[in-house]
Amino acid sequence: MKSAPITIELYPYRSLSRKGFIILMSCIAAVSFIAGVAFLLMGAWPVFGFFGLDVALIWWAIKRNYRDAECQENICISDETVTITRMKARQPDQTQTLVRAWARVRLEEDSERELVGRLFLTSREMVTEVGSFLAPYDRKSLATTLNEILARPRI
């Protein structure tokens, strides 16, 4: 009797909601507009345009960050395989399959300085990084979870 596959879904953390984005951009635009008007009244009219350019660049950077954060990784562990599926916005899904019997978890870690690096799933010569967008604590927790799951006997 086969056991049901275990699926782990990974998403990047987003600290700024849509409402927060609107409030932040409104505050930045208001401060830039007031400062720009002050420089305009002092006769430094080109500065007003640069304040507008700053607002546009900040808006673009945050929107770009939102788009880059529209990704997801799924790790599906069955009795025979470990399948890693990466989904990114406006890109085709990427899937890698590892043989569970050979799958190992490798976490780059510097215990002396308490630093956590990248997390890899390996199978023979195949090496794939997982959870690159996660915080170090979350990568360490994921490594522990994956090790526990892979250590369970297969039926």
Strand content: 25-35%
| Oligomer class | single chain
The averaged pLDDT comes out at 88
Number of strands: 7
Low-pLDDT windows of residues: none
Radius of gyration: 23 Å
Largest sheet: 4 strands, antiparallel
CA distance, first residue to last residue: 7 Å
Shape: elongated
Order of helices and strands: EHHEEEEEEH
Q: If strands are numbered along the chain, what order do they take across the biggest sheet?
A: 1-2-3-4
Detailed description of the structure:
The protein is an alpha+beta fold. It is built from 3 helices and 7 strands; from the N terminus they run βααββββββα. The strands form 2 sheets. It has a 4-stranded antiparallel beta sheet, with no helix packed on it. A 3-stranded antiparallel beta sheet has the order 5-6-7, with helices on one face. Strand 3 (81-88) and strand 4 (94-99) form a beta hairpin. Helix 1 packs antiparallel against helix 2 (45-68). The protein is elongated, with a radius of gyration of 23 Å.
